[in-house]
Amino acid sequence: MFEKILIANRGEIAIRIIRTCRKLNVKTVAVYSDIDARSLHVREADEAVHIGPSPSAASYLVHEKIIGAAVAQGCHAVHPGYGFLSENAEFAAAVVNAGLVFIGPASGVIAALGDKISAKNIAMKAGVPVVLGHNLPVVDVEEIRALAAEIGYPVLLKPAAGGGGRGMRIVAGPDELETALRSAQDETRKAFGDDRIFLERFITAPRHIEIQIIADQHGKVVSLGERECSIQRRYQKVIEEAPSLAVDADLRSRMGEMACALAREAGYSNAGTVEFIMDDRRNFFFMEMNTRLQVEHPVTEMVTSLDLVELQLRVAAGEPLPISQKDVSIKGWSIEARICAEDSARNFLPSTGLVTRYSNLKGRNVRLDSGIEAGSFISVYYDSLLSKVISWGETREAARTTLIQALNRYHIEGVTTNLGFANSILNHPAFIKGELSTGFIDNHYKEGEARIDPPMEQLEAMVIASTLVYHSRQNLVRESLKPMAAKVGPSHKPDNRHRYVVKGHNNIFEVELAGELTSSDWSFKVNGTEYRVVTPIFEFYRRRLRLKINGQDQYFRLQYRENFIWAAYCGNSRIFEIYTPREWELAQYMPKEKKGAQANVLLSPLPGMVVNILVNKGDRVYRGQDLVIIESMKMESGVSSPCDGIVEDVAAAIGKAVETDEVLITFKL
Ligand code: ADP
Ligand code: ADP
Ligand code: MG
Fold first, then answer.
1. Could you tell me if 149 and 269 lie in one domain?
2. From the CB of residue 368, how many other CB atoms can be counted at a distance below 10 Å?
3. Residue pLDDT, tens place only, 221-253
4. Residues 311, 398 share a domain
5. Cβ 627 vs Cβ 644: under 8 Å
6. pTM of the predicted protein model
7. Which residues lie at CB < 5 A from ion ligand 3?
């Protein structure tokens, strides 16, 4: 085994590789750019080398710098991770020329499989079914027109050099061909410096099923089962699982044999993934082969109990594979959610910022592969993947609920993420039924929101959590203000029932709760439905609340400001406003008398954007009246006046972003 390796990557995958190296007693050298100087992967590694400015073209992609660092630190091998230089044939060759081992296949094999046209030829030679198409570069529109007519519309224009879903164009009919070709060529020239485009039949609503293989340098190839990666946005994966509902034992072994045949034909060694597309009649066709470790490799590890990075290191070191095909068995189910810094509501645009609060995840059957911590800065320079949350269960349903609970208690603040979106997918009835296809997100979501309403029981659970936190805070404050004497002795309030009216999005909930602050048992009635709620200790910590509702542990993420509570649970996020029945009435009828007015400023209860201001300087306003509308987490919320008074100044401006506690309006009382 190697004594020391350099990891030519960053973020979660660098940390993932370090974990296995520690287990194998292999020393690690990290590389980092300017902006990554204080990042987690640098601290986790045994040594670290600065390789230049933040843009990856000046650091993580510079062959000489990385190889120079590896040589200078006395490394024996380079692990490229995924992305960056992982599928770069020239880099692999340069590593070898420097006398080091590249942890991946031979340079020539990367080149042959990295080109989609040549890869498809290798697949055909190995007897692997491929998507019907024309497997040569096309430039002439007339030629494509003739070919497309033969193949049948819709057709897909694909870049030979492609990756990351870039440069592909679906063409529905002959009129669209010319523009589609030009724009595909443009995009791929910019992205890959190569504008060769080829043509294949576009399979509608297919599933993406891929086979993980591992091959050593002695001709042994073993397949490790499939992963289903049909949940995609912009041709990129969001949720992956192993095994797949669409694959039975027979199909698994047929696809596995095909993948191994392809690897043998190519002379492959290393871990690798053969990607297939599957139509609704379970016909599968080769799409491409990824000659590296994949983002979603953990789901395979969870169901096979293998360590893929360890196997990569062993075969790269020349060891024979320690396993044979008969040793591979699939146990249970695993699902992964990719957590990315992106805004699902705005076409998955990447987002940046400082992670101001971050909760780690632990738990039975939960694995977190994370590259960030509180204080990490998410910059524009690299990929938006922050972490991956992976679950395991005996059944798909067990893995699904475990992952949902994990996401319910995973909290990342400061940067917009797709955490809620991913959780929402896991909760979607079509996902539950396993009705998956690459069109899933387009079919079931619009601007990041599910096209169907969340189940009422989920909303009611959120109402319970919000009301309980509000109630406890209100009363704990009141209790702590009472003189000691009043706290001891019997409660002078025999009736411990409390009623609240909770407004949330388009719903009004009537809530009745009964329980003592000092006890852990509560009974709730929400719009007539009864719930038994247990708070083992009042566990509200780092924005997370744990409750047992009707015997089931549930986690919520909550943020409060006065009577506004933001709650996130099972992919729903809502802002609830909590009123006593009396306050609610007053808020409805805008009381004329001055009562209970203290504060003379209106602060923003949440971060968001001001979308409307309903009053002007000099207006008379009443407590409870909505004054400003703020959009946050894709929802508009009215922010109501804390007092009766006259508007002295409007600090808020339409279209302006506001932070929690920012002054929106000041009043003369
Ligand atoms: P990349 O290198 O960008 O990963 P792939 O060839 O793997 O390119 O394709 C990415 C995704 O595009 C697939 O997962 C699938 O959703 C979709 N796709 C690719 N080829 C086809 C096809 N012929 N028909 C329908 N969808 C396709
Ligand atoms: P931390 O969450 O890092 O411990 P704080 O000191 O801000 O930081 O809060 C202490 C605890 O008080 C939190 O863990 C949480 O339980 C609660 N808390 C304080 N402010 C809020 C808020 N605005 N929303 C939700 N919980 C809060
Ligand atoms: Mg692919």
1. no
2. 17
3. 999 999 999 999 989 999 999 999 999 999 999
4. yes
5. no
6. 0.87
7. 275
